[in-house]
Design a protein that fits this description.
This protein has 291 residues and is of the alpha/beta class. The chain contains nine helices and 14 strands. The strands form two sheets. It has a seven-stranded mixed beta sheet, with helices on both faces. Strand 3 and strand 4 form a beta hairpin. The model has no long low-confidence stretch (mean pLDDT 94). Its EC number is 6.2.1.5.
Amino acid sequence: MAIWLTENSKIIVQGMTGSEGTKHTRRMLAAGSRVVGGVNARKAGTTHEGLPVFGTVKEAMEKTRADVSVVFVPPAFTKDAVKEAVDAEIPLCVVITEGVPVHDTTEFWAYATEKGNKTRIIGPNCPGIASPGASNAGIIPADITTAGRIGLVSKSGTLTYQLMYELRDFGFSTAVGIGGDPVIGTTHIDCLQAFQDDPGTDAIVMIGEIGGDAEERAAAYIEKHVTKPVVAYVAGFTAPEGKTMGHAGAIVSGSAGTAQAKKEALEKVGVRVGKTPSETARLMREIMQSR
Protein backbone atom coordinates (compact mmCIF):
# COMPACT_ATOMS: atom_id res chain seq x y z
CA MET A 1 0.00 0.00 0.00
CA ALA A 2 0.97 3.64 -0.40
CA ILE A 3 -0.55 7.09 -0.08
CA TRP A 4 -1.50 9.22 -3.09
CA LEU A 5 0.99 7.62 -5.51
CA THR A 6 0.76 3.98 -6.62
CA GLU A 7 1.95 1.73 -9.43
CA ASN A 8 -1.22 2.70 -11.31
CA SER A 9 -0.57 6.46 -11.17
CA LYS A 10 -0.20 8.07 -14.59
CA ILE A 11 2.15 11.05 -14.54
CA ILE A 12 2.45 14.06 -16.81
CA VAL A 13 5.28 16.58 -16.53
CA GLN A 14 4.58 20.29 -16.88
CA GLY A 15 7.82 21.70 -18.25
CA MET A 16 9.04 18.31 -19.47
CA THR A 17 10.96 19.80 -22.41
CA GLY A 18 13.18 22.03 -20.21
CA SER A 19 16.54 20.85 -18.92
CA GLU A 20 15.33 19.91 -15.42
CA GLY A 21 12.11 18.45 -16.72
CA THR A 22 13.99 16.33 -19.24
CA LYS A 23 16.53 15.05 -16.72
CA HIS A 24 14.01 14.06 -14.12
CA THR A 25 11.52 12.64 -16.62
CA ARG A 26 14.29 10.25 -17.62
CA ARG A 27 14.91 9.40 -13.97
CA MET A 28 11.21 8.82 -13.25
CA LEU A 29 10.93 6.55 -16.29
CA ALA A 30 14.04 4.63 -15.21
CA ALA A 31 12.42 4.15 -11.80
CA GLY A 32 9.44 2.49 -13.42
CA SER A 33 7.01 5.38 -13.05
CA ARG A 34 4.22 5.54 -15.62
CA VAL A 35 5.06 8.89 -17.19
CA VAL A 36 2.60 9.31 -20.05
CA GLY A 37 3.37 12.75 -21.48
CA GLY A 38 4.37 16.34 -20.99
CA VAL A 39 2.83 19.80 -21.22
CA ASN A 40 4.29 22.74 -23.11
CA ALA A 41 1.93 24.97 -25.08
CA ARG A 42 4.69 26.03 -27.49
CA LYS A 43 5.65 22.45 -28.33
CA ALA A 44 2.22 20.84 -28.43
CA GLY A 45 1.95 18.04 -30.94
CA THR A 46 5.61 17.06 -30.75
CA THR A 47 7.29 14.24 -28.86
CA HIS A 48 10.04 14.45 -26.25
CA GLU A 49 11.90 11.54 -24.70
CA GLY A 50 9.54 9.37 -26.72
CA LEU A 51 6.49 10.87 -25.02
CA PRO A 52 3.75 13.09 -26.45
CA VAL A 53 3.75 16.79 -25.59
CA PHE A 54 0.34 18.39 -25.07
CA GLY A 55 -0.74 22.00 -25.10
CA THR A 56 -2.63 21.92 -21.80
CA VAL A 57 -3.03 19.78 -18.71
CA LYS A 58 -6.68 19.24 -19.61
CA GLU A 59 -5.77 17.86 -23.04
CA ALA A 60 -3.08 15.65 -21.53
CA MET A 61 -5.57 14.21 -19.06
CA GLU A 62 -8.16 13.61 -21.76
CA LYS A 63 -5.67 11.80 -24.00
CA THR A 64 -3.73 9.83 -21.37
CA ARG A 65 -6.01 9.66 -18.30
CA ALA A 66 -3.18 11.12 -16.25
CA ASP A 67 -3.91 11.65 -12.56
CA VAL A 68 -0.60 13.18 -11.41
CA SER A 69 1.28 16.24 -12.64
CA VAL A 70 4.86 17.08 -11.73
CA VAL A 71 5.72 20.75 -12.24
CA PHE A 72 9.20 21.68 -13.48
CA VAL A 73 8.62 25.23 -14.70
CA PRO A 74 10.51 28.43 -13.76
CA PRO A 75 9.29 30.30 -10.64
CA ALA A 76 7.73 33.13 -12.64
CA PHE A 77 5.38 30.71 -14.41
CA THR A 78 4.65 28.29 -11.60
CA LYS A 79 1.49 30.03 -10.39
CA ASP A 80 -0.14 29.78 -13.81
CA ALA A 81 1.01 26.18 -14.25
CA VAL A 82 -0.54 25.11 -10.95
CA LYS A 83 -3.75 27.03 -11.64
CA GLU A 84 -3.98 25.22 -14.97
CA ALA A 85 -3.61 21.87 -13.20
CA VAL A 86 -6.28 22.89 -10.69
CA ASP A 87 -8.65 23.95 -13.48
CA ALA A 88 -8.17 20.53 -15.07
CA GLU A 89 -8.95 18.92 -11.71
CA ILE A 90 -5.95 16.63 -11.76
CA PRO A 91 -5.98 14.79 -8.42
CA LEU A 92 -2.31 15.36 -7.52
CA CYS A 93 0.01 18.23 -8.47
CA VAL A 94 3.62 17.97 -7.29
CA VAL A 95 5.43 21.33 -7.49
CA ILE A 96 9.20 20.85 -7.51
CA THR A 97 10.14 24.44 -8.42
CA GLU A 98 12.24 26.38 -5.92
CA GLY A 99 12.04 30.14 -5.50
CA VAL A 100 8.30 30.54 -6.07
CA PRO A 101 7.17 33.88 -4.55
CA VAL A 102 5.18 33.26 -1.38
CA HIS A 103 2.42 35.53 -2.72
CA ASP A 104 2.10 33.28 -5.77
CA THR A 105 1.95 30.13 -3.66
CA THR A 106 -0.70 31.71 -1.44
CA GLU A 107 -2.69 32.63 -4.53
CA PHE A 108 -2.66 29.19 -6.17
CA TRP A 109 -3.30 27.46 -2.84
CA ALA A 110 -6.34 29.69 -2.26
CA TYR A 111 -7.43 29.09 -5.84
CA ALA A 112 -7.35 25.33 -5.31
CA THR A 113 -9.42 25.78 -2.14
CA GLU A 114 -11.98 27.90 -3.97
CA LYS A 115 -12.26 25.15 -6.58
CA GLY A 116 -13.16 22.61 -3.91
CA ASN A 117 -9.71 21.13 -3.19
CA LYS A 118 -10.09 18.58 -5.99
CA THR A 119 -6.35 18.87 -6.60
CA ARG A 120 -3.89 17.96 -3.84
CA ILE A 121 -0.82 20.20 -4.12
CA ILE A 122 2.53 19.00 -2.78
CA GLY A 123 5.20 21.71 -2.54
CA PRO A 124 6.47 24.01 -3.88
CA ASN A 125 10.23 23.76 -3.32
CA CYS A 126 10.03 20.06 -2.58
CA PRO A 127 11.58 16.80 -3.79
CA GLY A 128 8.20 15.24 -4.49
CA ILE A 129 6.67 11.93 -3.49
CA ALA A 130 7.93 8.38 -3.89
CA SER A 131 6.32 5.02 -3.22
CA PRO A 132 9.32 2.69 -3.56
CA GLY A 133 8.80 -0.18 -5.94
CA ALA A 134 5.64 1.44 -7.29
CA SER A 135 6.16 5.00 -8.56
CA ASN A 136 8.25 8.12 -8.19
CA ALA A 137 6.98 11.65 -8.90
CA GLY A 138 9.70 14.26 -8.49
CA ILE A 139 13.43 14.17 -7.79
CA ILE A 140 13.74 11.67 -4.92
CA PRO A 141 16.41 9.11 -5.86
CA ALA A 142 14.75 5.81 -6.70
CA ASP A 143 17.60 3.51 -5.71
CA ILE A 144 18.32 4.54 -2.12
CA THR A 145 15.69 2.47 -0.35
CA THR A 146 13.24 -0.39 -0.71
CA ALA A 147 9.52 -0.91 -0.41
CA GLY A 148 8.38 -1.41 3.16
CA ARG A 149 6.00 -0.27 5.86
CA ILE A 150 7.43 3.04 7.13
CA GLY A 151 5.81 6.32 6.11
CA LEU A 152 7.93 9.46 5.90
CA VAL A 153 6.96 13.14 5.77
CA SER A 154 9.68 15.77 5.59
CA LYS A 155 10.30 19.47 5.07
CA SER A 156 13.85 18.76 3.91
CA GLY A 157 14.82 17.01 0.70
CA THR A 158 18.32 16.03 1.81
CA LEU A 159 17.12 14.66 5.14
CA THR A 160 14.40 12.75 3.30
CA TYR A 161 17.10 10.97 1.34
CA GLN A 162 19.23 10.31 4.40
CA LEU A 163 16.43 8.72 6.41
CA MET A 164 15.30 6.65 3.43
CA TYR A 165 18.84 5.35 3.00
CA GLU A 166 19.48 4.67 6.68
CA LEU A 167 16.22 2.73 6.99
CA ARG A 168 16.51 0.95 3.64
CA ASP A 169 16.60 -2.47 5.36
CA PHE A 170 13.01 -1.88 6.50
CA GLY A 171 11.78 0.19 3.55
CA PHE A 172 9.01 2.68 2.99
CA SER A 173 5.38 2.66 1.95
CA THR A 174 5.59 6.30 0.77
CA ALA A 175 7.96 9.20 1.36
CA VAL A 176 6.56 12.71 0.95
CA GLY A 177 8.75 15.79 0.73
CA ILE A 178 6.38 18.63 1.55
CA GLY A 179 8.87 21.49 1.12
CA GLY A 180 10.14 24.13 3.51
CA ASP A 181 8.56 27.33 2.20
CA PRO A 182 6.39 29.47 4.52
CA VAL A 183 3.29 28.46 2.54
CA ILE A 184 2.91 24.92 1.17
CA GLY A 185 0.08 22.80 -0.11
CA THR A 186 0.22 19.48 1.73
CA THR A 187 1.24 19.67 5.40
CA HIS A 188 2.67 17.36 8.03
CA ILE A 189 -0.86 16.86 9.35
CA ASP A 190 -2.22 15.86 5.93
CA CYS A 191 0.48 13.20 5.65
CA LEU A 192 0.06 12.00 9.23
CA GLN A 193 -3.66 11.49 8.60
CA ALA A 194 -3.01 9.60 5.36
CA PHE A 195 -0.38 7.35 6.94
CA GLN A 196 -2.64 6.70 9.93
CA ASP A 197 -5.37 5.57 7.52
CA ASP A 198 -3.04 3.51 5.31
CA PRO A 199 -3.05 -0.21 6.20
CA GLY A 200 0.34 -0.56 4.52
CA THR A 201 2.06 1.83 6.93
CA ASP A 202 3.07 0.62 10.39
CA ALA A 203 5.09 3.59 11.69
CA ILE A 204 5.88 7.17 10.70
CA VAL A 205 9.02 9.29 10.49
CA MET A 206 8.42 13.04 10.61
CA ILE A 207 11.17 15.52 9.75
CA GLY A 208 10.67 19.16 10.66
CA GLU A 209 12.84 22.20 11.00
CA ILE A 210 12.95 25.58 12.71
CA GLY A 211 10.46 28.28 11.82
CA GLY A 212 6.69 28.49 12.01
CA ASP A 213 4.51 26.24 14.16
CA ALA A 214 3.82 23.32 11.82
CA GLU A 215 5.51 20.80 14.09
CA GLU A 216 3.65 22.03 17.17
CA ARG A 217 0.36 21.72 15.31
CA ALA A 218 1.40 18.26 14.14
CA ALA A 219 2.09 17.29 17.75
CA ALA A 220 -1.42 18.36 18.76
CA TYR A 221 -2.84 16.32 15.87
CA ILE A 222 -0.79 13.25 16.79
CA GLU A 223 -2.04 13.39 20.36
CA LYS A 224 -5.67 13.22 19.26
CA HIS A 225 -5.65 11.22 16.04
CA VAL A 226 -2.51 9.11 15.48
CA THR A 227 -2.18 5.70 17.11
CA LYS A 228 0.80 4.45 15.09
CA PRO A 229 4.29 5.09 16.48
CA VAL A 230 5.94 8.31 15.31
CA VAL A 231 9.59 9.33 15.54
CA ALA A 232 10.81 12.78 14.57
CA TYR A 233 13.81 14.93 13.86
CA VAL A 234 13.85 18.73 13.98
CA ALA A 235 16.64 20.42 12.05
CA GLY A 236 18.14 23.67 13.31
CA PHE A 237 19.14 23.35 16.98
CA THR A 238 22.23 25.51 16.39
CA ALA A 239 20.56 28.11 14.13
CA PRO A 240 21.08 31.73 15.24
CA GLU A 241 17.97 33.74 16.07
CA GLY A 242 16.56 35.91 13.31
CA LYS A 243 18.46 34.25 10.48
CA THR A 244 16.81 32.42 7.60
CA MET A 245 18.47 29.02 7.40
CA GLY A 246 18.18 26.98 4.20
CA HIS A 247 14.48 27.10 3.42
CA ALA A 248 12.61 30.36 3.15
CA GLY A 249 10.37 29.32 6.04
CA ALA A 250 13.19 28.39 8.40
CA ILE A 251 13.46 31.54 10.49
CA VAL A 252 13.19 31.89 14.26
CA SER A 253 11.70 34.94 15.98
CA GLY A 254 12.38 35.01 19.71
CA SER A 255 11.33 31.70 21.24
CA ALA A 256 8.75 30.98 18.53
CA GLY A 257 9.70 28.31 16.03
CA THR A 258 12.83 27.05 17.77
CA ALA A 259 13.97 23.46 17.43
CA GLN A 260 13.83 23.03 21.21
CA ALA A 261 10.21 24.21 21.41
CA LYS A 262 9.22 21.80 18.63
CA LYS A 263 11.10 18.93 20.24
CA GLU A 264 9.37 19.53 23.57
CA ALA A 265 5.92 19.73 21.95
CA LEU A 266 6.48 16.43 20.14
CA GLU A 267 7.94 14.60 23.13
CA LYS A 268 5.05 15.78 25.28
CA VAL A 269 2.66 13.71 23.13
CA GLY A 270 4.87 10.62 23.06
CA VAL A 271 6.86 11.18 19.89
CA ARG A 272 10.49 10.11 20.22
CA VAL A 273 12.75 12.84 18.82
CA GLY A 274 16.28 12.09 17.67
CA LYS A 275 19.13 14.53 18.26
CA THR A 276 20.57 13.67 14.84
CA PRO A 277 19.13 12.07 11.68
CA SER A 278 21.06 8.88 12.43
CA GLU A 279 19.67 8.71 15.97
CA THR A 280 16.20 9.23 14.54
CA ALA A 281 16.78 6.28 12.21
CA ARG A 282 17.94 4.19 15.19
CA LEU A 283 14.77 5.03 17.12
CA MET A 284 12.64 3.92 14.18
CA ARG A 285 14.72 0.77 13.76
CA GLU A 286 14.02 -0.15 17.38
CA ILE A 287 10.28 0.30 16.80
CA MET A 288 10.27 -1.83 13.65
CA GLN A 289 12.38 -4.58 15.23
CA SER A 290 9.97 -4.81 18.18
CA ARG A 291 6.91 -5.36 16.00
